[in-house]
Amino acid sequence: MTSTLTTPAASRTGSGKRRGRAPGAGPDARPRRRRAPAWLAAVPLLAFTAVAFGVPAIAMLGGAFTVDDPAGGPASYGTGNLATSLQGAYLTALIGSVKLSATAAVLAALLGLPLAQAVVTGSRALREAVLTASGVLANFGGVPLAFAFVATLGNAGVLTRHLGLADKGWSLYSFWGLVVVYLYFLVPLMVLTITPALDGLRTQWREAARSNGATTVQYWRHVALPVLLPSLLGGLVLLFGSAFAAYATAAAMVGSAVPLVTLQISDALSGNVLVGQENVALALSLDMVVVAGLVMAVYLPLQRRSSRWLA
Amino acid sequence: MARLTPTAPRSPQWRRWVLGLAGLYFLVPLAASVVFTVDVPGQGLTLDAYTKIIGTEGFTSSLLLSLGLAAVTIAVVLLLMVPALVALRLGAPRLRPVVEAVCSLPLVVPPIAFVAGLGTVLKWGPEHLARTPLFQTFVALQNPDFPVVLVLAYVVMALPFTYRALDAGLRAVDVRTLVEAARSCGAGPVRALVTAVLPNLRGALMNAAFLVLALVLGEYTVAQLLGFRPFAVWIVNISGSQAQMSVAVSVLSLLVTWVLLLALAGAGGRAPGARRTRTAKG
């Protein structure tokens, strides 16, 4: 952290020198003295993050690459844990998480887009209401969400009992059950993400397309969707990341009925299944960080691109 | 909005369907939760699940613990972020990408991976540091009455969206002019911050504080895996024996959180740019 801190300060001194060659070097000293505390104010924040975030991150890296000797000898560095984390039940869980997150994200994007379009073309009051509700619902997750759905569609849930869903083969504690639950916060998140992009579609584009004889389908196919594509993809990976990291909802709802990497990590950490799997849990965490990192690496450039289009 | 009116009357049919289905999907679980709590099979209509909440063991202590953690987390987040972000706007623009990147890093590390690392660090205490003064620090961090380590974790988890909330607020204010005006009236840097900048940031500060409050009240992953028992963990613990009550408490906590967030949307959400901050959670 300190090395990154000195860079801006040093370069500022450099530019100060360059300006110092001009006759009016005197007033230059004052702004520099006033500026010096400016980056100092960021030091507590950076120091805090280095300790509270950096140390656990390093511990995770170190643990992921530390292989305990089964014979009780000294631990050594190696990739054994990572290899274990990509095999058997752990790999199943990782794939299960990716499948669940991808399914939920795609469905949420497909459902969120018409909803957002309905909001954008609707009245102002509708717009305010839906966007405010979306903001609230997108922040909704975790335990209360799980219990709301258990009460609705769980084994003894209200809809399950009154509609006899159990006889029709419905189970909330399954892959599709989790998808239904995840949509509850992913669809509003999609609405919030895509609404600014839909707002940015100029009416003139639609009018120009129509006066050239394009149908609504052709307008969407050739004008609107290409412009929206970066925002749509950006929203999609954002939803994927959000679903991928979710733990509380699944933990409170299904236990380990559905293989998910977050549930595997918590089992391995608490020694529920096998004792001494802590380092595998750290390796799994590292796998998750890699996936989440890829998601952000896709998301950030897309977001930048869409903001260029729709500025 | 006016430019959209020509297209608006064209498609009321599909819009009604979309909004109707969405409304159904989002309202049914809430309505069903309420029905679930008052219509108990074998007992008929009863409000027991709600009336017994206060007297249930662990409710008050876990709620107070969560509220305390939220208060301290909000204070720490704002004390760390506000001076840093204001100063970056004033005098160190080159540092901004660094701070932005640092504040976004927690997005790349899912909470469960973060707590896995945190748990490993906490184990160093008894394993390697038992004879050093640091050991006492580790013990104090994990004091079950007030686990400071949770505050540390929550501050880190809150960084990405408090950054965006405060940054959006600062973008709407001409900080430099405010501070220069205050300083030419003789105020020191701290006084300029407190009397000139902070009042103009009230909306953004409230925004950030409420988001942190919602985060901490609902947080389950870190607390459960580190073995503490704030509100969300308590709800899950009682759900096994008292299903009705756990759903009732969930409904209530939802309502409280939503009323808070809606009040926030009503108070500060009208300002342009404020909406963007609410998407920050994802």
UniProtKB/TrEMBL annotation, chain A:
Domain (ABC transmembrane type-1): residue spans on this chain: 94-299
UniProt entry keywords in alphabetical sequence: Cell membrane, Membrane, Transmembrane, Transmembrane helix, Transport
Superkingdom in the source lineage: Bacteria
Keyword Iron-sulfur on entry: no
Gene source species: Streptomyces showdoensis
Region (Disordered) residue spans: 1-33
Any one biological process term the GO annotation gives: transmembrane transport
Biased composition (Polar residues): 1-14
SUPFAM superfamilies according to UniProt: MetI-like (SSF161098)
Keyword Cytoplasm recorded: no
PANTHER family: INNER MEMBRANE ABC TRANSPORTER PERMEASE PROTEIN YDCU-RELATED, INNER MEMBRANE ABC TRANSPORTER PERMEASE PROTEIN YDCU-RELATED-RELATED
Ranges annotated as spanning the membrane: 39-67, 87-116, 128-153, 173-198, 227-260, 280-302
Gene Ontology CC annotations of this record: plasma membrane
Subcellular location: Cell membrane
InterPro entries recorded: MetI-like, MetI-like_sf
Protein name as annotated: ABC transporter permease
Membrane topology recorded in Swiss-Prot or TrEMBL: Multi-pass membrane protein
Family, similarity comment: Belongs to the binding-protein-dependent transport system permease family. CysTW subfamily.
From TrEMBL, chain B:
Source taxon at top rank: Bacteria
Keywords: Cell inner membrane, Cell membrane, Membrane, Transmembrane, Transmembrane helix, Transport
Domain spans labelled ABC transmembrane type-1: 63-264
Swiss-Prot/TrEMBL GO biological process terms: transmembrane transport
SUPFAM superfamilies according to UniProt: MetI-like
Membership in a protein family: Belongs to the binding-protein-dependent transport system permease family.
Name listed for the protein in its UniProt record: ABC transporter permease
Protein's organism: Streptomyces showdoensis
Species classification: Bacteria, Bacillati, Actinomycetota, Actinomycetes, Kitasatosporales
